[in-house]
Design brief:
This is Laccase. This protein is mainly beta. The chain folds into 3 domains: about 120 residues, Immunoglobulin-like (Sandwich); about 180 residues, Cupredoxins -  blue copper proteins (Immunoglobulin-like); about 190 residues, Immunoglobulin-like, CATH 2.60.40. Helices cover about 10% and strands about 40% of the residues. The protein starts with a helix and ends in a 20-residue tail after the last strand.
């Protein structure tokens, strides 16, 4: 054999083949669709006329191209919630953060590759309150030939939880902004778009989940609600939790899950009854004195061969303020942390941050209903002001005057965060980001405040997964609390509940250059300003740098 040929063969033997995924093309036409729920009809914003919208299927390593065409009167963007978007921030989707919105009559192709992720996520509109109906699931299957690290289910079923207003949701939030007060709560919760029969609309059907006795099913559960955390349970059946936010967890059994807006949970269920119909229930979790929609959404688990007239086995939903039930679920979550799926928790910290999250009250002379004041929300007392140029464009093209890099790493004023509120409830305003060096490590403690009311805030970080290394009630005490952190197998997520009147600590590595939004996933709190962004600088060389924007990036 020629020596050069020997060298080629040798190189081929020692160089691992780079296996590229396939390219998946989707068309999302954003259109209005007249829809009837609760015995009344209204036009809603949808993708392809579907509510919930279509499920996007892909495999790990696939490249996904979604052409979004806007055929409604609103500006539109779509966020691929939980997709890492490594170096592809232009496809992340939050309006005025990574892109200007897609204007009526225009279209934009979201182009991203799914790297090192598999599981259930969601997509949703990321502008105004359009995500109330503009949402759907993302299912990322493992690479071909790679098994699940748990028993393979006979069938997989997507279960999208949501909220429904009889009124136009854009009118609901406009009225709230005008008044300076909280918006009207939803009229019902939904399971795959259906509330189920309720007393004042008994004719309304609900979602049915058909099962066969002796078979195992995996429910891919998504909370796409705007403002409410939900309990989910099925009468007469245990759920085995195997994944949250597209990361595998150590399996555990429970009869009730708690899931915040933006979170996902994969649960195995064994159809271990011989026959029958069993109630599936989604009900609100709120452990603060704040009004929520108290309607329970219902669906039916229906064994094959069971007559339609058979009575349904019922289940008791947890009380609305069942903190213990919620904590039982949250405290059971641990990363799988296996050889194949290790928990790469940062053990050293470059940036030690503490952000308060909560509400405030600012003057508003035109807010008559609020007696000249309006409710606002903030992080570290900064109420975020949305820019009119997208932050990522301003960063990439060095456009000055759009944002400042002086977001405070600690509360500007120290007070008893979960005790008596300070006399001055005002916040400052600004479009501020916190700058991170590429590949630096971050520990961020998110501290709830008792201003107006303590509340559980589900905080979502774009562009990253993080590890939830600790949580507690009251005010975070670094000297004591850090000693109890779990740095071995903490759960890995993209959306985390800050406990009502407490704190949560997360860690992540800033290995994704770009501008990444972080905000409360209760939509009203985002509207009120509970949001900020991290700016992660480029590293060394092209593989650690943000890609240039695509040619069809929408213009403001």
């Amino acid at each position: 054999m020629d020596s050069w040929l020997q060298i080629l063969v040798l190189v081929a033997c020692i160089t691992p083949a780079v296996v590229q995924g396939r390219v998946r093309n989707y068309t999302f036409n954003v259109v209005m669709k007249n829809t009837t729920r609760l015995c009344s009809s209204k036009p809603i914003v949808t993708v392809n006329g579907m509510f919930p919208g279509p499920t996007l299927y892909a495999r790990e390593d696939d490249t996904v191209l979604v052409r979004v065409s806007n055929r409604v009167k609103y500006n539109v963007t779509i966020h691929w919630h939980g997709i890492r978007q490594l170096r592809s921030g232009w496809a992340d989707g939050p309006a005025y953060i990574t892109q200007c919105p897609i204007q009526p009559g225009q279209s934009y192709v979201y182009n991203f590759t799914i790297t090192g992720q598999r599981g259930t996520l969601l997509w949703h509109a990321h502008i105004l309150w359009l995500r109330a109906t503009l949402h759907g699931a993302i299912v990322i299957l493992p690479k071909r030939g790679v098994p699940y690290p748990f028993p393979k289910p006979h069938k997989e079923v997507v279960v999208v939880l949501g909220e429904w207003w009889k009124s136009d949701t854009e009118a609901v939030i406009k009225q709230a902004i005008k008044s300076g007060l909280a918006p009207n709560v939803s009229d019902a919760h939904t399971i795959n778009g259906h509330p189920g029969p309720i007393s004042n609309c008994p004719s309304q059907g609900g979602f049915t989940l058909p099962v066969e006795s002796g078979k195992r099913y995996m429910l891919r559960i998504v909370n796409a609600a705007l403002n409410e955390e939900l309990f989910f349970k099925i009468a007469g059946h245990q759920l085995t939790i195997v994944e949250v936010d597209a990361t595998y967890v150590k399996p555990f059994k429970t009869d009730t899950i708690v899931i915040a807006p933006g979170q996902t949970t994969n649960a195995l269920i064994s159809a271990d009854q011989s026959s029958g119909k069993y109630l599936v229930a989604a009900s609100p979790f709120m452990d603060s004195p704040i009004t929520v929609d108290n309607m329970t959404a219902t669906a039916t688990l229906h064994y094959s061969g069971t007559l339609a007239a058979t009575s349904t086995t019922l289940t008791k939903t947890p009380p609305q303020n069942a903190t213990a039930v919620a904590n039982n679920f949250i405290n059971s979550l641990r990363s799988l942390n296996s050889k194949i799926y290790p928990a790469k928790v940062p053990l050293t910290v470059d940036h030690n941050l503490l952000f308060t999250v909560g509400l405030g009250i600012n003057p508003c002379p035109s807010c008559k209903a609020g007696n000249g004041s309006r409710v606002v929300a903030s992080m570290n007392n900064v109420t975020f002001v949305m820019p009119t140029t997208a932050l990522l464009q301003a960063h990439f093209f060095n456009i000055s005057g759009v944002f400042t890099s002086d977001f405070p790493g600690n509360p500007p004023t120290t007070f008893n965060y979960t005790g008596s509120p300070p006399t001055n409830l005002r916040t400052t305003s600004g479009t501020k980001v916190y700058r991170l060096r590429y590949n630096s490590t971050v520990q961020l403690v998110l501290q709830d405040t008792g201003i107006i009311a303590p509340e559980n805030h589900p905080i979502h970080l774009h562009g990253f997964n993080f590890f939830a290394v600790g949580k507690g009630l009251g005010n975070y005490n670094p000297k004591v609390d850090q000693k109890n952190f779990n740095l071995v197998d903490p759960v890995e997520r993209n959306t985390i509940g800050v406990p009502s009147g407490g704190w949560v600590a997360i860690r992540f590595r800033a290995d994704n250059p770009g501008v990444w939004f972080m905000h409360c996933h209760l939509e009203i709190h985002t509207t009120w300003g509970l949001k900020m962004a991290f700016l992660v600088d480029n590293g060394k060389g092209p593989n650690e740098s943000l890609l240039p924007p695509p040619s069809d990036l929408p213009k403001c």
